[in-house]
Amino acid sequence: MRKHEGVCTVRLVRSLCLVVSIVVSGSAQPAIAQTEPANPIYSRLNTFGGFIAYSGTSSHMVLGYARNRELLGFGLEYRRRLTLGRIAIWQYSAEFLPVALESDPVVHDVLNQQTPTPLVLETDFRQTMACKSGTVNFSYSFEGVTYSGTLTDSCRRTWTVGEAFSPVGIQWNFRPRHKLQPVVTGHGGYMYSTRTIPIDYAGSFNFTFDLGVGLEFYRSMSSSFRADYRYHHISNHGTANVNPGIDSGVFQFTYSFGR
Question: Which CATH class is domain 46-105+159-258?
Fold first, then answer.
């Protein structure tokens, strides 16, 4: 009888050991599966983000002629991965700027006529070239009457509110197995403003495009920061009376997330 009980005890212990080993091995497998790969690819299928973009001036870089214009924008981005390679990742990119601000230099013109009768006239106007301050004296005769006085120009700035949307865009990320990735990007779209820009008689509806390079740093697989520099162009493409265009060098900083 005691021998039989001893055999049963041994079998019971073996059974318990088998159950414990199955439970331990089963619980260990998910932990192993959740371990991050030794050399992961930092990329997301769908990416969302917010950004701020700014340019402190403009000049005749390629196409535009309006000088000393400022740009400031706050926007949202969406990216969709199209191809995934060992060297580069190709993504569709779209950007929406619900707040797109453009600043023009304004010439404040004060005509102070002294003869033949005192007269003061003040006007504001925007011109393609940068504003210059100064005072000049004038004196001329017309039909036997002499007109003389001073003309004073001073510089001011005015901001125009608008919104912009770039539905056509691409972005390439290189070195996808590294957290720090070089970026090449480009977009095309439009900008609508509450008045004509960059000068009077231009257009309030303008086309836009940009080309840029930058760096994107992945904090984790799901979030990243990107800083890039872009050549940015605004033009009404001849749909208004005048089309000076704006060429700007824009700095953009973006926080992105997704999976």
Answer: mainly beta
